[in-house]
Amino acid sequence: MSTTVYPPLPAERLLQEEKDSISRELEWLLESLQETLASLRLGLEECIALLEPTEPGCKLVLSSHRSESLKGTITRVGTRVVACDVQVKMHGLAPTKGYSCYKLAVAADLSDRCLVLDQLAEVRNLVNQSLDVVDVSTWTGDPKDANFISGQLRLLYDNMQEARQALKVTDSNKLFPHNPVDARIFDHPLPENLSFDLSISDASLRVELRTLEPVKDHADTLANFGFQRLAAAIGAARKPEHDESNEVFCYRGVDVRVKEKIRVESADPSLIALMAKLAALEHNVSLSRKALDIVMGRDE
Length: 300
Fold this sequence. Notes:
Layout: H1 11-50, E1 58-63, E2 70-77, E3 80-88, E4 102-105, E5 115-116, H2 118-140, H3 146-168, E6 194-201, E7 204-214, H4 218-233, E8 248-251, E9 254-267, H5 269-295
Antiparallel strand pairs: 1-2, 2-3, 3-4, 3-5, 6-7, 7-9, 8-9
Helix pairs in contact: 1-2, 1-5, 2-3, 3-5
């Protein structure tokens, strides 16, 4: 079944009518996108509110799975960790004086240094940039210029995608062994044989602790690795204690081996909500981009 115009129109006029119809549809779409941008602004402001340094902050419980290796709490306010009270039991880690375990606590006076979650700072910057894009699209630029609005929507989509990704995955260059934390942040400065990493993974707060031992002779390391391969071949190998057992790292300028490793994650309700909001906003922008591309004839 097909639809025709009666009486038939000349080909030139029919082409002009199609262009006029597309022009009217594009004009209507650009007007409706201003309402979409206003809705996006509200959603982005809600995201910023979830990252505001509001007291008393978010207190999260940390506990190692089926062991007493790590127990405690950590408090996040905005992009900073303001309190940490964790008890650690690891081989080669001497207990803190007066305790039966090693006490890991953030120093009370952090005037010149602090424990900042770089991923959250990045997310906040990206959301603020997105708000700027919305303001430019609404007030500064030409809201009736389809190419301009298309470019702004692309910027919004890229920013939201990066922000959501920052809540999912940590840049490996900012973790062990590349980015040692300032040992003075804690009440008792970290011993040289302990590394500490704090990051965000899938909207959860992740703490990683490693006890280290220096590697004195690489020849011994290679020989030991060869022995382990031989033991594995004859079925006499002992199961590695963790995934970094056979690796050597350069940490603070010294070659070290990881003796013991602990990784604990604690879901952060505010970050889960933030990630869900960013995903919804990203989806809305994607639909708007697709609609505009179709009307502009860019859809493949």
